[in-house]
Amino acid sequence: MPNILTNVNDIKVAQNALQPFMASLMPMRAFSTNFSPEPADKLDTVRVPVVGAPSPSSDFAGSYTQNADSTIDVVPVQLNRHKFKTIHITAREAAETALNVLDTLVSSAVKQLAQDILQDIFSEITQANYGDPGIDPVAPANFDYKRVLAVREACAAAKMPVSDRALVLDSAYFTNLLGDDIVAKSYMPPIAQPGVVEGVIRRLAGFDIYETVILPENGEKLAGFAAHPSCLAVAMRYLEPVANYDEAGAVTDPDTGLTFGYLRYTEIQSNRIFVTVECLYGFKTAITAGLSRIVKPAPAP
Fold this sequence. Notes:
By secondary structure, the chain is an alpha+beta fold. It has helices spanning 8-24, 91-95, 101-122, 127-130, 145-157, 171-178, 181-185, 193-196; strands at residues 32-40, 45-51, 72-78, 81-90, 166-170, 203-204, 207-212, 222-227, 232-239, 247-252, 259-267, 272-285, 291-295. It has two domains: 8-52 and 71-124 and 233-284; 129-231 and 288-295, hypothetical protein PF0899 fold (2-Layer Sandwich).
């Protein structure tokens, strides 16, 4: 069993930080995952179920077990990544403001931790792992609804399952898509608010849409990708501390299992309180046909 936070204030700070952690990791829904607050050590291996396209049905010939198969593969993922973020506050800083400074600092730290984790996972999306882009290189200003349909065609050509597809886009590409005539006019009252007011496109052409400002180019001008969860396996566990802390525990979303560790400790000499948030995780390429890359064009000579 993982450690459990017991201090009321720590529980409040940690739970308030859970929402920005989850929000920053929203694009993770594009992948196959196995998240849990169960304790693990670095370099442990977690088995991540990956569901691909099913095989054709069979004609009945006396037995239901004939031609039986499983479309579920299990990908072993090593927990070889450990990221952390530490903040501190002095007793004077806590006393001289009406705001809960610790709460604000921890929420900000957790959000940064989540972004760093996601960017690390995106580093796996390369030509070596997933092949050539599904469509020709395209500039942000030219990325419109027709290009989304071209990506959809590329996914179909690769036999990517139609269900559970996601499209993750660099912010410049997403923004241009917001201004596309077809996309803009598709929002009819009273459902116009997400796109027009909030700048959100939840679904388009059969894709769940995610905007990101942290997508690395990976040395290949990566600008986005279409994905089925079978493309990548991601695992996350709680790294149980071996030292003694004032407070230590796993902070977990009960629905998804997304987990980060929370440590609070005091430096008596400087009268400072430190809080560290950390995450133990790993990822591995699964079914290569489950992802189609989008890249930027090379700069003009």
